[in-house]
TrEMBL record:
Residues 249-320 form the FYVE-type domain. It is found in: Early endosome. One of its GO terms (molecular function) is zinc ion binding. It holds the Pfam family FYVE. It comes from the Eukaryota. InterPro entries: WD40/YVTN_repeat-like_dom_sf, WD40_PAC1, WD40_repeat_CS, WD40_repeat_dom_sf, WD40_rpt, WDFY1/WDFY2, Znf_FYVE, Znf_FYVE-rel. Gene3D superfamilies: YVTN repeat-like/Quinoprotein amine dehydrogenase, Zinc/RING finger domain, C3HC4 (zinc finger). This is FYVE-type domain-containing protein. Keywords: Endosome, Metal-binding, Repeat, WD repeat, Zinc, Zinc-finger. It comes from Anabas testudineus. The keyword Metal-binding applies. One of its GO terms (biological process) is positive regulation of toll-like receptor 4 signaling pathway. One of its GO terms (cellular component) is early endosome. The lineage of its organism: Eukaryota, Metazoa, Chordata, Craniata, Vertebrata. PROSITE patterns: WD_REPEATS_1 (PS00678), WD_REPEATS_2 (PS50082), WD_REPEATS_REGION (PS50294), ZF_FYVE (PS50178).
């Protein structure tokens, strides 16, 4: 079903203002140009395009540049008009965009990875470009000399990246479900800690020093990095202050309800002559339970679960009907969203995805809301 385009907001929901079409393959990233009626897109069709809004109200490409390999991600720095493009062949290409956004000149090509670049951040403060790739590594390169400064390898391909410019710490999420915190130096690095999160996307708030990680399981985890309290919150699309802190998952060799052994508990299985069971966790109390003792599913919005999740039978009985009242609102984007960008000052959002369409939304009527998208890991 096609989305309807309105000239101005009608209700308190995202309103589709415009659609940009013309790509011949999936659009992997789109960013709004600050203080301009423009959008920059990169695509699997190997194109980098700068779209400017014309007097007709439609967006047309003022720059159409083709590179040698599909474009997987980008990092755009508006003040310096420098744009870095990650490619499927592992290279990162830097361009300089003219002031009128009608011309783009090649600056450098960085041999960052041996495989597809999955995410990337440019830091003007340190003059580094930090990137992750499907070659299971994170690399940081000097943008002044073009030389490689360092590289760290993981056990799984690195899927997402956030970088704290002030302290030169990098958060790297990999496809095994871990988030690694690295302190980067010019010629070396150190591993600070590893968080057991999940694959998908990362977002770093340098002011509150909070790290958010999301995935295709519809959940978001908030990691309290600055507070050093080990606090985590599970969110599914609504206000932080509405959420109750998620319980820590407990470890046990047997079900903490019926005491039946889990499949790795060889001694108890031998003593009781029973087969081991698979371990699960109740999302409300955190106890390790078997499938029989956690056969129920329930929403629990106050803890962040807007969708049904596994809870033990005892916790299910304590959840009242009013506890299941949704705290979040969901809006249909009507296309598979792989990437989004926000301009809060103008109340604009841009989304793009595998359907080759870029959509520009008016968010001025969506007040006081946290925003999240459902996406598929690239």
């Amino acid at each position: 079903m096609a989305a309807e385009i309105h000239s101005r907001p009608q209700t308190s929901r995202p309103v589709l203002l415009n659609k940009i079409e013309g790509h011949s393959d999936a659009v992997n990233a789109a960013v709004l140009i600050p203080k301009e009626d423009g959008v920059i897109t990169v695509s699997e069709d190997r194109t980098i395009r700068v779209w400017l809004k014309r007097d007709s109200g439609q967006y047309w490409p003022s720059i159409y540049h083709t590179v040698s390999s599909p474009c997987s991600c980008m990092s755009y720095h508006h003040d310096s008009r420098r744009i870095f493009i990650g490619q499927d062949n592992g290279a990162v290409v830097e361009f300089l965009i003219s002031e009128d956004f009608n011309k783009m000149n090649h600056v450098k090509t960085y041999p960052a990875h041996q495989n597809r670049v999955s995410d990337m951040v440019f830091s003007l403060e340190s003059e580094w470009v930090v990137s992750t790739g499907h070659d299971k590594s994170v690399s940081w390169m000097c943008t002044q000399s073009g030389s490689m400064l360092g590289r760290h390898y993981f056990n799984a391909w690195a899927s997402c990246l956030q970088y704290d410019h002030e302290t030169q710490h990098a958060f790297v999420g990999d496809y095994s479900g871990q988030i690694t915190l690295l302190k980067l130096e010019k010629q070396t690095y150190s591993t600070i800690t590893t968080l057991k999160g999940h694959e998908g996307a990362l977002w770093w708030d340098p002011v509150q020093r909070l790290l958010f990680s999301g995935a295709s399981d519809h959940s978001v985890i908030m990691w309290d990095i600055g507070g050093r309290k080990g606090r985590t919150l599970l969110l599914q699309g609504h206000h932080l202050e509405m959420c109750v802190q998620a319980p820590q998952w407990l470890d046990s060799d047997s079900c903490q309800k019926c005491e039946q052994p889990f499949f790795w508990n060889i001694k108890q299985m031998w003593d009781t002559k029973t087969l081991g069971l698979r371990q699960h966790h109740c999302r409300k109390c955190g106890k390790a339970v078997c499938g029989k003792c956690s056969s129920k599913r329930s929403t629990f919005p106050v803890m962040g679960f807007e969708f049904p999740v596994r809870v033990c039978d005892a916790c299910f009985d304590t959840i009242k009907e009013e506890d299941r009242t949704p705290l979040a609102t969901f809006h249909e984007g009507k296309h598979n969203i792989a990437h989004m960008d926000m301009d809060p000052s103008r109340g604009l959002m841009v989304t793009c995805g595998s359907d080759r369409i870029v959509k520009i939304w008016d968010m001025t009527q969506v007040v006081g809301c946290s925003l999240a998208t459902g996406f598929s890991p690239r």
